[in-house]
Specification:
32% of the residues lie in helices and 17% in strands. It has 7 helices and 10 strands. A 7-stranded parallel sheet has the order 1-10-9-6-2-3-5, sandwiched between helices. Strands 4-8-7 form a 3-stranded antiparallel sheet, with helices on one face. The radius of gyration is 16 Å and the shape is globular. One of its GO terms (cellular component) is cytoplasm.
Amino acid sequence: MKTHIARNYLEMSSQAAELIINQVRENPNSLVCFAAGNTPLGTFSCLVEAFHGGRINFDQCRFISLDEWVGLGASDEGSCRQTLDRHFFEPCGIKKENIHFFNGTSDELEAECKAMDDLIVAHGTIDLLLLGVGINGHLGFNEPHVDLEQYSHVTDLDSVTKQVSVKYFTERKNVQKGITLGIKHLIQASMVILIADGEKKADIMRKALRHEVTNEVPVTVMQRHPNVHVCMDESAAAFVL
């Protein structure tokens, strides 16, 4: 792991964005996967600024989703697709044909999983993966006790994830399941950027970097990845400094 410790959230977001910019410049036709959630928003803002400043062009990239709440789609406030549309895809003018996202409202969720797996296999691998981490250690919706050998799958959400989910929705949503890329996808990605900020993430980042690898804390599996950049602010890195 390559660890980058920033003074604050804005600096951490900028560090992650520069890693993404460099990767896309080196491989313009990258298959890219960005997590949604609150932590990546600063990184998206930096990327949008770089795009409008002419520093980066995403025209040849293809984008896939990390995860989605089952029951929610692109038009639903707080969905992963809606977050990425608002904060990255639309401001950067990403063409819809270059986006392949899980449809959480589908009646054929297993078919959604197969279509995603087939797309990744056809490309070869995910070239660039931006991940946040939950306070319970989840990556995407790979919750504690996940099967580390899985590819895309539908899963029951951990109680902690369901509790935290309320911050994403303006109206109460009874989310119980998620659809997500599997740990096998994450491990096989060519480059991973893991971002974390704030005191609330300090304990899980200590486990991410220092704990034994276990499916009880899914983020620990990143220790096995050969090309991971961990970007944290000083608060999130408090227990690993």
